Amino acid sequence: MKTDSGLKIIARIENDFTEKFGVPRQSGLADIGSKIVFEPEYRVPEAFRGLEGFTHIWLLWQFSEAVREKWSPTVRPPRLGGNTRMGVFATRSPFRPNSIGLSSVRLDRIELHTPLGPVLYVSGADLMNGTPIIDIKPYLAYTDSHPDASGGFALTEREGRLKVEIPESIAQQIPEDKLPGLSEVLSQDPRPQYHSPDRIYTMSFGGFEISFKTDDRVLTVTDIRKS
């Protein structure tokens, strides 16, 4: 299978993020597990020989929900409130000349012999469920890590994490094994930078609709319903 740009789709990611709202803004921010399932052509164990020696990998993927025929030289980064325009090449906006994303994730384990062929289990992905992956490369700390690099305007981030409160009566509506991941995502404050203070937001996670509100630095879940 190929993308609209002619690149081959080698795999798709499977996780609990069924819509864009709520997906971590960058890879590595939320320790949420995902698995990478390969297209039939690439279910070849030999293609993964040696990958078990790496703790992290790069995913190159397509912004499948943000494909546009035209591009704009400037975009409005949510981090700046959505009102300030910056050059597209100074951002990680999905609206690009080529809708390609890049994420660094932790490689937790590899299962080579499953009914779906080799499957990679990763943590820290910032991709929606079903996102097409076009390549995988090993992360090399000695050359890929630059601790002294400047982050430009992207360093103007919110201070710390939100405290997440899920009343026991509401928490019972979702499987217990999903609660840690849900709390992790909510603590990152999934609201847009230009949020309304009194609004109740709803996001999809793992087959459930999660409603929440915030008061200062406390996020309270108000309802959990099955999608």
Q: What secondary-structure arrangement, pairings included, does this model have?
A:
Layout: E1 11-14, E2 33-38, E3 56-62, E4 74-75, E5 86-87, E6 100-111, E7 119-123, E8 132-138, H1 141-144, E9 163-165, H2 168-171, H3 179-187, E10 201-205, E11 208-215, E12 218-226
Parallel strand pairs: 9-12
Antiparallel strand pairs: 1-2, 1-8, 2-7, 3-6, 3-8, 4-5, 6-7, 10-11, 11-12
- Radius of gyration, CA atoms, in whole angstroms: 19 Å
H/E topology pattern: EEEEEEEEHEHHEEE
Name the CATH superfamily assignment of the largest domain: YaeB-like
Q: Looking at CATH, which topology of the largest domain would you report?
A: Elongation Factor Tu (Ef-tu), domain 3
CATH architectural label of the largest domain: Beta Barrel
Report the mean per-residue pLDDT as an integer: 88
Main β sheet profile? 6 strands, antiparallel, barrel
Strand content: 25-35%
Q: Ends: how far apart?
A: 29 Å
Mind explaining what this structure looks like?
The protein has 227 residues and is mainly β. It folds into two domains: 11-144, Elongation Factor Tu (Ef-tu), domain 3; 163-226, YaeB-like fold, CATH 3.30.2310.20. Helices cover 7% and strands 31% of the residues. The protein has three helices and twelve strands. It has helices at residues 141-144, 168-171, 179-187, and strands at 11-14, 33-38, 56-62, 74-75, 86-87, 100-111, 119-123, 132-138, 163-165, 201-205, 208-215, 218-226. The chain has a six-stranded antiparallel β-barrel. The protein has a four-stranded mixed sheet with strand order 9-12-11-10. Strand 11 (208-215) and strand 12 form a beta hairpin. The longest helix has 9 residues, at 179-187. It is globular, with a radius of gyration of 19 Å.
